[in-house]
Amino acid sequence: MDSPANTPDIYAEVIIDSFASLHGGRKRSSALLYFANLGAQYRFDSGLSLQGELWLTDNQSISDVVGDEQGVSNIEASEAGVHIGTLALGYATSSFSALVGVYDINYHFDVLESANLFVHSAFGMGSVFGISGPNGPSTYPQPGLTAKFGYHRGNHSMQFALADGEPGDPLFYYHTAAQEEKRINLLVVTEYAYETAQHKLLAGWWGYNDDSVVLQNAGASRGKNTGLYLRIEHRFAAGSAEHQLTVFGRAGVGASKFNFFDEFYSVGLQASGKLWGFGDEKFGLAIAHARTSDVRSPEYGSDETALELTYSASFDNGLAVQPSLQWIGSPGAAREAKDAVILGVRFSGRFD
Asked: What share of the chain is helix, strand, coil (3-state, %, to 5)?
């Protein structure tokens, strides 16, 4: 339900993930992760808006148990505590938008709603882009200062962002120095989108200006760390008013000498509606494949693959339950790694 004009939109979200490693990986064990978000947004009649979010994260890890690189859970974070997730000033008209402040660029770039169903991190921002840069791009769990500008006309839109290329301070997210003195590491992202009632196409480019951080054995740091991605989504015409089937895909590449993974591909499907009679239901099956860089260290294998089967049931009170079964092939792209099987369940609640 939309809030009345000139009143703040206040919301809260809690997510709890419980995982058990059933086979393979580093060891058979379990992990419990949590995330909480308290946010508010106020829109002025002039088109201005103020946005703020506080994040509560923990430092538990299922990926330490599995040994994977892409991330079994998209709420896993290295820092425990309360952080500024969003603090931004926005402006929007019918065709132009701007947003300046601290926020997660994955809220706006390289994102498809259908792929966001999945618990595994690779189905959010693709793994090449998602773990690029010294500390990752300006996204969860370390967003940085970012300025985004967008233009929309008809089915077409373009957006551009300039962000901190090395976010890292756990409280204020101020810029931290790159490896070379007196250098500022900036991340630039631009994206074109075409969208209709049934189709969505995203084409993006990203790049860092700092060329000082290269992989081991990659040689001199000539060139820049850049990459491309392409995402597509197709919603089939509903067979009935209660069911919807959506398929999606993604491909991405990045500079080999700067990125652990330099190629990434994913495909998946989501079925939604009243499937078995348990509230608002969604079923998903997807696979993500990341190829390690050609200049990787000799001990690494050629790729890591993640397959996820998941089902989510959401209820009118804002609560949701989502079991997830994942298979991770070659965790961490390690040559001797055993394929892992992980069973998990996500409990979440959103309150507006």
From this structure: 5, 55, 40
Q: What CATH homologous superfamily does 9-351 map to?
A: Porin (2.40.160.10)
**In this predicted structure, what is the pLDDT of residue 297?**
67
Q: What are phi and psi of 337, to 5 degrees?
A: -70, 140
Peptide bond into 143 cis (omega under 30): no
Provide the sign of the torsion angle of the four alpha carbons 64, 117, 287, 144, taken in this order.
negative
Q: 178 with 213: CB under 8 angstroms?
A: yes
Place of tokens 């951080």: 213
Residue 141: closest CA among 83, 183, 197: 83
Residue spans of the domains in the chain: they are 9-351
* 209 contacts 185 by C-beta, under 8 angstroms: yes
Q: Which two tokens stand for residue 84?
A: 């500024």
Q: Please state whether the peptide bond connecting residue 298 to the residue before it is cis, i.e. omega within 30 degrees of 0.
A: no
- Which two structure tokens, joined as six digits, stand for 118? 């999945």
Instruction: Please tell me the distance from the alpha carbon of residue 326 to that of residue 9, in angstroms, as a whole number.
Output: 36
Give me the residues of the chain with pLDDT under 50, please. 1, 3-4, 170-179
